Amino acid sequence: MTYNIKLRRFKYEDAEALAYFCNDEDLQKYLLLSKLPYTIDDACDFIKYAKDCEESGGEQCFAITLDDNVIGCISYTVQSGCHCNSASVGYYIGKEYWNRGIMPVAVKNILEIIFQNTAINRVFAEIFAENTSSVRVLEKCGFVREGYLRNGVNKDGIVHDAILYALVR
């Protein structure tokens, strides 16, 4: 199935959609930071953060759109120091869009942005080991499992294993 998936920078008008999607326990289960309830004010704060980062060169956040409607977020962060040739990537979409083949398209789009606009030659993702959906997304996009991080993530006081995936240009 073909979808009209595009990435664009966030606008404040996206706050309502973000608040709607992020107000879901299942979606937040695998996000490093979680906040429930997630309000429109929280979404506006995130959009301000995204805009500030765009200007400062920090994390680069993009709205994932389907037919021009915001359905999620994808971002990359260029690493520093001796790791400056690498970038991490993170993403989510609203629950009603899961398992429809949308996220691999969004990941391929962000890879295109990264590789066309930066000198980055390695993109990696660190995901919760139990997040099998994200494993499938990364593998569909050509990422290779590089490591298993025992007790690698502490979220809300609960320790989880993580998996490191990477793609080299």
Give an account of the 3D structure.
- The chain has a 7-stranded mixed β-sheet with strand order 1-2-3-4-5-7-6, sandwiched between helices.
- Helix 1 packs across helix 3.
- The model has no long low-confidence stretch (mean pLDDT 94).
- It is built from 5 helices and 7 strands; from the N terminus they run βαααβββαβαββ.
- It has a single domain, classed as Gcn5-related N-acetyltransferase (GNAT) (Aminopeptidase).
- It is an alpha+beta fold and 169 residues long.
- The protein starts with a strand and ends with a strand.
- The chain is 32% helix and 35% strand.
- Helix 4 links the parallel strand 4 and strand 5.
Order of helices and strands: EHHHEEEHEHEE
Number of DSSP helical runs: 5
Structural class: alpha+beta
Our count of domains comes out at: 1
Give the low-confidence spans.
none
Outline, from the CA principal axes? globular
Report the sheet-strand fraction.
25-35%
The biggest beta sheet reads: 7 strands, mixed
Which CATH first-tier class would you pick? Answer: Alpha Beta
Spatial separation of the terminal alpha carbons: 27 Å
Largest sheet, spatial ordering of strands: 1-2-3-4-5-7-6
Mean pLDDT: 94
Which oligomeric state applies? single chain
Per the CATH scheme, the topology name is Aminopeptidase
**Number of beta-strand segments:** 7
Name given to the CATH homologous superfamily: Gcn5-related N-acetyltransferase (GNAT)
Q: From the 3D coordinates, which CATH architecture would you assign?
A: 3-Layer(aba) Sandwich
Please compute the radius of gyration using only Cα atoms. Answer: 15 Å
